[in-house]
Amino acid sequence: MSFPLLTATAALPAIGAVATAAVPAARRTAAKWLALLVSLATLALAATTLIRFDPDGDRYQLTESHAWIAEFGVRYELGVDGIAVALIALTALLIPFIILAGWHDADPLETGDASLSSFAAGRWRPTQGFFALILAVEAMVIISFEATDVFLFYIFFEAMLIPMYFLIGGFGDRAHEHGEKAAATQRSYAAVKFLLYNLVGGLIMLAAVIGLYVVAGNFSLTEIAEARANGTLDMATSTERWLFLGFFFAFAVKAPLWPLHTWLPNAMGEATAPVAVLITAVVDKVGTFAMLRFCLQLFPEASKWATPAILVLALISIIYGALLAVGQRDIKRLVAYASISHFGFIIMGIFAMTSQGQSGATLYMVNHGISTAALMLVAGFLISRRGSRLIADYGGVQKVAPVLAGTFLIGGLATLSLPGLAPFVSEFLVLVGTFANYPVIGIIATFGIVLAALYTLVLYQRTMTGPVKPEVATMPDLRVRELVVVAPLVAVLIFLGVYPKPVTDIVNPAVKQTMSDVQKKDPQPEVEAAK
Amino acid sequence: MSAPAVHSLWTTAADPISKIDAPKIEYGQLSPTLIVLGAAVIGVLIEAVVPRKSRYYTQVFVSAVALAAAFAAVVALAAGGYGTTKAGIVAMGAIAVDGPALFLQGTILLAGLVGLFTFAERRLDPLVHGNRVDSFAAQAASVPGSDSEKAAVKAGFTTTEVFPLLLFAVAGMLIFPAANDLLTLFIALEVLSLPLYLMCALARRKRLMSQEAAVKYFLLGAFASAFTLFGIALLYGYSGSVSYATIAQVVDGSAPDVNPALADTMGNDALLLVGAAMIVMGLLFKVGAVPFHMWTPDVYQGAPTPVTGFMAAATKVAAFGALLRILYVVLPGLRWDWRPVMWGVAIVTMLGGAIVAITQTDIKRLLAYSSIAHAGFILAGVIATTPDGISSVLFYLAAYSFVTIGAFAVVTLVRDAGGEATHLSKWAGLGRRSPLVAAVFAVFLLAFAGIPLTSGFAGKFAVFKAAAEGGAAPLVVVGVISSAIAAFFYIRVIVLMFFSEPRPEGPTVAVPSPLTTTAIGVGVAVTLVLGVAPQYFLDLANQAGVFVR
């Protein structure tokens, strides 16, 4: 038996999480370094996966299959296609930066509560917990990208909520306009809202998962998809639609799609910047990824049936998210609404049912991850300096901290999809792909770009330009650690902006496969995606 | 009366002594129950003859050995094929020894053993007059607050009778799901209930509340028993027998011979429907299904917490076992009548338990309502009426009982000056003070909520799958909705423990003896093992999923 590369990629951060949590209370720095090393080693494994993956080979590669719960027809089945391998690489790439950016986020506060510190000082280990939870989320996200068994996917899709919940609720942003007490209340509210939204979505999906088992008799994605394709597994139209809706609901909450999006601004606003990146750039991608992998493959007819409605919802997400982003006073909530707008683009690309649209959407998942990470992490550095999330509290930062302002600008420009930066390519593909099938929706969606320019540039203008506010006058520029976080992300943004071929090469065959699953042909003339 | 007649009366009275067949008792197959009952009797004798000082140790030793030996007997029987190929009816038709019976008996015995550990815990309360004390009243007979109570406390009395009571209750629970005629069912019901009523009244602290709980439990339980008994009488009138198999034959219309004495009433469907409804009602009372759940919160709250944990776990296992046997063995011919009713009961139980739990402020009441919601989930599996339905219910019961005992064992640890601090507000910030205890409790709560990788998820999935395959898809939908509602209050406790600031005067976490630690450790281990690798136990439940008739 060959080396189980996929299991190793997911297991390494899981083991790392346990090890990090076990580091003694006094050795905080050791825990941080351990977590960073584990995440780098995971990145190495993910890179190996990427190299070993042959874009022109079988659909699912590096497959592993073991018996697990025979009673439920569940197998431990892993396999990656081009889309999964790209997203695993994205996840593994972002986690070290998230860890580095959050280096000091979980250092214990000096509390004045003597009774507490004397009693609990020896046992309360927030730092170890913070980094262990990040690694646990990484492990679960990676394995849900790898799972080709619906049940296995479901388990980790749900289970990842728990560490995420503790990350949001336990380690929130301490900056709040109404003081720390308000921050704690808000944080707890955001964490519960996050969990409940996603749990409800997941439980509805559970009903659909059980329904799928009753209809299909097993959980293997490949077997069911094959049986669907060659007609041996016939689903009644209404059954297929109900099951599709059950799955889609969970993914739409996670993605998030309007009107199920309201947890995201709370969660991203109250979490620390690195955790916000973890939510939007990594965890939410599981939702859009699962639409591609599960909704389209398992329920092709229902997907086509639901397309118009989903496209309209995606369009609303794009415009509504952008409009609300324009109106935000809080930097992090602004980025959250911008993300909702971008997820609208991704979902629109997936359901446009053209190969440009879908490869654009996949590319968008990767690019959005990197660009949001860049913007949000720099915003986090900015917020930690001033202790406020309000846009109005800043002004003229570019004169005091030019490097910070510069990287913030690049992150912002990437968010508004400036040509030359990575998201442009993907957004363009999505719009072209949508236009080919649904011209009206494509045209309206274009306004989302205009609005993106508005909210990003206004944000930059208000915080970075103008007269220097007295509170920011002594603001230090980016430190070495922060530069190490931001510089590579910016480099990747520029590289993929001018040369997206490495990603599209890996993604395109998988997209072609998905398209053939739904038996959709591109409208003539076929345009090869961004070659 | 003439002389010869008297003579013949005398001779016929004297002669048949040799003609009465001695009842054939299969001691081997009954050994688990007999061991526990025997130990319970020995326990009573210990109270009479062993000096007070050494009673506690003797009782704990005898009880633990008996429960372990009975469990070993169950395992031996199961290994000997008595659950599958050699399953059969023993003790003149009174007891069934088959897969479900052995599986449930094993679960009850393990739950009883783990429960025993929490009963025997004596390190949580501070020393009283230099004596170690457990959760039970010094002397049950002394009036709360009276001088005699003070004297009993000062003398260092302890109610070591709880151990034989526990054994009697366990013995009743062992018979309950195995009973194969209605009278045995009723006797088992009483044997398991009476010790529970008593134990509920024995709390060391908050004695009035405890006694109130016991009275409520006893009164409502007596009502339920009376209903059951009435139902048994009606079913006897309907079928002319109390034997499960005979009743089932009459229901099916395949009875071989008709009892002439009952020819008038036999086959009267009104008797059947009313009788069956009353028996099922009595059982639904025991499992705590809405609308027969009213006693649950008060009793769970008032009873000593170790008793609550044991009762919540083992009673539910036994009662669901009996319910399954009644519905699957006696009344399968009636399923078109009982299924719609049970649908309704399952739906209101799931939703009712979950919704009312949201407003609770006491951790024990919260767990009580959560147990009601779980009864609803299990009912969804019961309704499936497929072999998968049986095995999923068996698995769920095993998974649920260990989570429950573990959770209540954690509740016993969190204490302030007034004993256990069960008000939720006192649990604020527990995660800061005692991360390990809070984390363990969080594991149990997540299992209750059915989060993947815990036993709660595997169990929930199993029953929902069985229900969906049995054609009860709407129940699955209601089930997931109630799960979502239930998740809210489980999460609320986690929020409270981890994200709230600890109160300065908040409770402390007592350091337990190895007994409670073992109970909690077993709970966590079973929760995680059944969550990650449930296959072996699902197989076991699957093999055990056939009732003998």
Instruction: Name the biggest interface.
Output: A-B, 42 and 42 residues
Mean pLDDT of chain B: 88
* Largest sheet features of chain A: 2 strands, antiparallel
What number of structural domains do the residues of chain A give?
1
Strand order of the largest sheet of chain B: 4-3-5
Helix content of chain A: over 70%
Tally the helices of chain B.
21
- Written as H for each helix and E for each strand, in order along the chain, the element string of chain A is HHEEHHHHHHHHHHHHHHHHHHH
Percentage of residues in strands of chain B: under 5%
Q: Tell me the count of domains of chain B.
A: 1
* Termini gap of chain A: 38 Å
Radius of gyration of chain A equals 22 Å
The strand count of chain A comes to 2
Number of helices of chain A: 21
- Structural class assignment of chain A: mainly alpha
Largest sheet of chain B: 3 strands, antiparallel
**Tally of strands of chain B:** 5
Order of secondary-structure elements of chain B? HHHEEHHHHHHHHHHHHEEHHHHEHH
List the helices and strands and how they pair.
The complex is a heterodimer of chains A (531) and B (549).
Chain A (H helix, E strand, L loop, with lengths): L4 H17 L6 H25 L8 E9 L4 E7 L1 H20 L12 H7 L5 H21 L3 H10 L1 H10 L8 H38 L4 H9 L7 H18 L8 H8 L2 H26 L1 H27 L4 H21 L3 H32 L10 H4 L1 H14 L6 H16 L1 H26 L15 H19 L2 H17 L14
Antiparallel strand pairs in A: 1-2
Chain B lengths: L2 H12 L12 H23 L2 H28 L8 E3 L4 E3 L1 H21 L27 H8 L7 H14 L6 H19 L6 H33 L4 H9 L16 H19 L7 H8 L2 H26 L4 H23 L5 H21 L3 H27 E3 L2 E2 L9 H4 L1 H15 L5 H15 L3 H27 L8 E2 L4 H19 L2 H9 L6
Helix pairs in contact in B: 2-3, 2-6, 3-4, 4-6, 4-12, 4-15, 4-20, 6-7, 6-12, 7-8, 7-12, 8-9, 8-10, 8-11, 10-12, 11-12, 11-14, 12-14, 12-15, 13-14, 13-19, 14-15, 14-18, 14-19, 15-17, 15-18, 15-20, 15-21, 17-19, 17-20, 18-19, 18-20
Pfam family, one (chain A): Proton_antipo_M
InterPro entries (chain A): NADH_Q_OxRdtase_chainM/4 (IPR010227), NADH_UbQ_OxRdtase (IPR003918), ND/Mrp_TM (IPR001750)
GO molecular function, one term (chain A): NADH dehydrogenase (ubiquinone) activity
